[in-house]
Design a protein that fits this description.
The protein is mainly β. The chain is built from 3 helices and 26 strands.
Length: 458
């Protein structure tokens, strides 16, 4: 998600297209609503219509609790605005900006969300400085307690501070959220600590927790994680244009701080395989794993690819910007944001086989931006479908993907001032499967969506 620091041809194109979209927004909310009203899918290949996995055309819809026109949704769906950046939280802090990855938990009968804030260096940590990992780093997490009946916010507070660029992460079966730093900055950048690590936050915490860097899980440009509950293995994605897919084998199941072994995925019999182009949907690729000898390299601040290069030297596979990662249906699902022959995104499924082997399968590859444009965060629905958060060039959508690989539109961002940075992020279902929570990154908004889920794949 590092749009502001990556100066590439792709980013220049995205910026120009996004700037054009921002200019169009000056025409007012009416223009946005008109676009939303015409947001029915503009494609026919692999499309899931209403009654066949999808939920039908999108219609501009106002929030049920504030009356704001923020989303276009299928008929029958409703949503609330839960949280907005800059508003006071229960602990006296203002809600930090740049909402990103998130997960929902049931804690003692309460519905809780733990949410990332992808804030880079700011000169001051959120929350209490004495409980921060680095008092000079502005990222971290907040926790929201939500009334499951009214879908309204009950309270919110800082739950982790002093980290940097907390992009995504993932929930664990033992009731914690792993938040990941998408940077390897450190002392040379004027900070008091090295960064580029994963941290664990208890969903049950009622205040700011003391951060512990999980260094054995690697120091690199982290994005998301997913935990296989059958084995306790943690899968990790890397958000670089040449990226690896990793897994962490903990020494003690459920105790990540006790250390473990980091590995990188390779394709059996195909040394240094490049998954970014030339792939075929549905073709199984047999997997093996190579060990990373030094998961916390001393030069990581100056070479953010230091971990990846260790795996590549042993024949590990390369992906294009691995972002979203989620466990479901016995598999690990992963988004490659810039993968594919068109560079517009791939959705991969890894099917584990115990502690070794397994298969990697391409589920979907975008043929054009109006089908799927740069999938980022994802989650698996209770009914087996996938929710894909777009991080595209202008209009931002939530897309649904059926278990058999057909895509459909689920929501469109109509937030008037969100511009090209208004990507969706942090999609996650409530434990009972009735509510989909999702963030708009900028301006930071957290939304709760509900409706006739059983009529489609989600």
């Amino acid at each position: 998600m590092q749009k502001e620091v990556r100066v590439t041809n792709i980013d220049r194109r995205k910026f120009l297209r996004g700037s054009a979209a921002l200019g169009g927004m000056l025409c007012g909310l009416e223009g946005l609503i008109a676009r939303g009203a015409s947001a029915a899918p503009r494609h026919g290949v692999g499309f899931a219509a209403k009654g066949a996995g999808g939920y039908g055309p999108l219609r501009p819809t106002a929030t049920s609790n504030t009356g704001e026109m923020l989303l276009a949704l299928p008929e029958g769906f409703q949503y609330n605005l839960l949280s907005r950046e800059g508003t006071p939280m229960s602990d006296g802090n203002l809600t930090p900006p740049v909402f990103d990855g998130m997960a929902a938990f049931s804690v003692g009968g309460q519905l809780r969300l733990v949410r990332n804030h992808e804030i880079r260096m700011s000169g001051a940590a959120m929350g209490s400085a004495d409980k921060s990992y680095d008092p000079l780093a502005g990222g971290g997490t907040t926790t929201l307690i939500v009334d499951p009946q009214t879908r309204e916010l009950v309270s919110s507070f800082v739950s982790l501070g002093g980290t940097s660029t907390n992009c995504a992460g993932g929930p664990t079966p033992w009731g914690t959220w792993i938040t990941c730093e998408e940077t390897t900055v450190g002392h040379a950048n004027g900070l008091s600590q090295h960064h580029g690590y994963c941290f664990e936050v208890s969903a049950a915490a009622n205040g700011q927790t003391t951060p512990v860097a999980l260094k054995a899980m690697g120091r690199f440009i982290h994005e998301a994680v997913a935990v296989d509950p059958a084995t306790g293995i943690v899968y990790e994605t890397e958000d670089t244009y040449s990226a690896g897919l990793y897994r962490f084998l903990p020494t003690q199941r459920g105790n990540l701080a006790a250390g473990g072994r980091l590995q990188m995925l390779a394709i059996k019999g195909k040394r240094s395989y490049d998954t970014r182009t030339g792939q075929r949907v549905g073709k199984p690729l047999p997997v093996t794993w190579v060990d990373i000898a030094d998961p916390d390299p001393a030069d990581a601040e100056f070479n953010q690819m230091a971990v990846y290069e260790q795996g590549l030297a042993q024949g590990a596979a390369t992906f294009g910007r691995l972002e979203g990662c989620w466990y479901g249906n016995g598999s690990i699902f992963v988004n490659s944001t810039n993968g594919g022959d068109q560079g517009l995104g791939q959705v991969w499924e890894y099917r584990p086989r115990g502690n070794s082997g397994g298969q990697l399968i391409l589920l979907f590859e975008s043929p054009s931006a109006d089908v799927l444009d740069a999938p980022d965060n994802l989650c698996v629905s209770p009914r087996g479908g996938l929710v894909l958060c777009e991080d595209g060039a202008s209009e931002q959508f939530l897309r649904g993907l059926t278990p058999d690989g057909r895509i459909f539109d689920l929501a469109q961002n109509l937030v008037p001032d969100s511009s090209w940075a208004g990507e969706f992020a942090g999609a996650t279902f409530s434990p009972d499967g009735q509510t989909l929570f999702v963030n708009v990154q900028t301006p930071g908004l957290t939304l709760a969506i509900w409706g006739p889920w059983t009529e489609g794949a989600l």
